[in-house]
Amino acid sequence: MKRFPITQGVPGFKFSGIAAGIKKASIKDLGLITTDRPCPAAAVFTKNSVKAAPVLVCGKNIKNNLIQAVLVNSGNANACTGQQGIDDALATAAILSSKLNIEDKLVAPFSTGVIGVAFPTAKIIKHIPTLINNLSSKNAKDFAESIITTDTCIKTSSYKETFDNDCVKILGLAKGSGMIMPNMATMLAFIVTNISIEKKLLKSLLKEINEETFNRITVDGDMSTNDSVIVMSSNLTKTTVTKKGSKAYNTFKKMLHLVMKELSVMIVKDGEGATKLINIIVEKAKTDADAKKAAMQVANSSLVKTAFFGEDFNWGRILGALGSSGAAFDMNRVNLLFNTIPAVQNGQGIKENITKLKKTVKNKEITLLIDLNNGSKNCMVTTCDLSYEYVRINADYTT
To answer: What pTM does this model have?
Structure first.
């Protein structure tokens, strides 16, 4: 697999991103992806019981697994806005569909930004003609810029591979920086590919890989109201993916996994105020559920995260988090390693490694290995530290 510049685009898709005046500054805040015809699509959404209006509308529209246009705004989440918010999401989608001459149900609306604020329907409708006029296969970067909020950079991943003389391309565009925790977070991810694939296979692949990528990251332990991941295929290759286990299926699965994994790690690296990327690996747990519970509990512990920010290898906090996770283990058999340097063996600290440990926790990227010695199941979760800057960003987010 080889990378390709996102300005090359993916056959069958056009992108647009413009400033519609939704945000305070005159920066891009309205994006659009279109295809020439309805294409296979699959999506997964937040499991928060408080769901934003676009999540409800998009969830209904995508039931037939066919989408032709994706409309995204940043700066306003259209969440906790009641029936009016749903009406607004439907209205903007309807205007877009009429301009594109497609059915309303083929539009997938998405929003991200401040919760509980009236949706700027008029601004969006006013700028839809400009949004459409700016559509181009080369404008993926404009789209990526239009969807970010507290992000410090755009997040993209693109790969291509040859399938029996077919050039298969896949491009992922995402946003996310805070309110990041499975099941997903205040993140949006849009993935497009030109491979010909059956709808049911695309849906099952997305669900499976999402569990291994976007559902294995956390920044602050808060689940949002808007998080969504959608993948669409223009079905323009001669090579067709029709069954699991085939060569084409396995290769495309690797491509999709790579893109989603890269985007998920980018989100954590760009976590609000983050200074360190931390990979937490739990090994030898009794069950898969135990492995995930243990890894997530440590990853979400404010005490553990602040210790990493302070460059303190405080393994006592880690054991404390493990003990509250509900995972089955014997503390006297637990081993901990920071970047392969043993810190705890059989539940006891290793004093002779203190100097090495003090040095290794100063690294920008740290791998914490937790060996429970209680089975054969493993899980990895990617997180970041918790800094003063995170507090500052979220203390005045709506002011």
So the answer is: 0.90
